[in-house]
Known about the structure:
Elements: H1 6-18, H2 25-35, H3 37-49, H4 53-68, H5 78-81, H6 86-100, H7 104-125, H8 142-151, H9 157-160, H10 164-175, H11 186-201
Amino acid sequence: MTGLAKGNIEALKKLAFEARWESDRKEAIRMLSEFGNAAFDVLCEIAQKSLELEERKFALKMLRQIMKSGLVIERFPQHLYEVLPNDIKKILDEAIGCYENGFCAASSVMFRKVLECSIFIKFRQEGKEAELFDKNGNPIELKRRIELAKQWHFIASELASELVRVKWFGDAGAHSFNITIAKEDLPNISVLIRLTLEQLFHK
C-alpha cells in the first residue's frame, strides 16, 4: 500500500483488530494521523478481501468510525477510478461535485444512481441483464437488485446489507421535503459506494 512499509501494514491491521472502535473515536483519528490515507485503503482492502466474515464486518465498522472523525481523506483513489466504466465515472463525478459544493440532497440522489447503475452494468457485463427485470419487462426495485448482486457474489453479503443506507438517503434526497440531508451524512455513503465499486469493477 502506498506510503506504508509491509511491517507497518501488519502493525496497522493488528492495531485495528485490537482497538475498541465503536467506543473510541480518538483511536481512529490517531491511526489516520499516523498512517495517512493509506490506513483507509488498508481498511478497505480488509473489508473487501479478507476471507473472514467477522474481519470484513469489523473493517466496515472501523471505516464508518473514521468517517465520523470528520477527517478529509481520498475516498475514490486513482487505481479505482481508472477501471470504472465511463458511464459510472460521469455519475460519480456529479455526485462528488454536488457534495463538494454543498448540494447534499442532489449528491445523495447521485450516489444512489451510482449504486443502481453500477449493479446494472455489472449484470450486463456478466450476461445476466435480464434478471434485473420482472416477467413484464419492468425494472425490479433497487433493494431486489442489491439482493441479486449478493446472490451472484458480485457484492459481499455484509456490504449488501449496508447498502440500504445509500438507497434511503437517495430516496430521501429525491422525494422528501421534510428531511434535510446534511453534509456530514454523506461520507459514510461514499465509503459504501467506494467498497461497492471496488467489488464490482476492481480486480
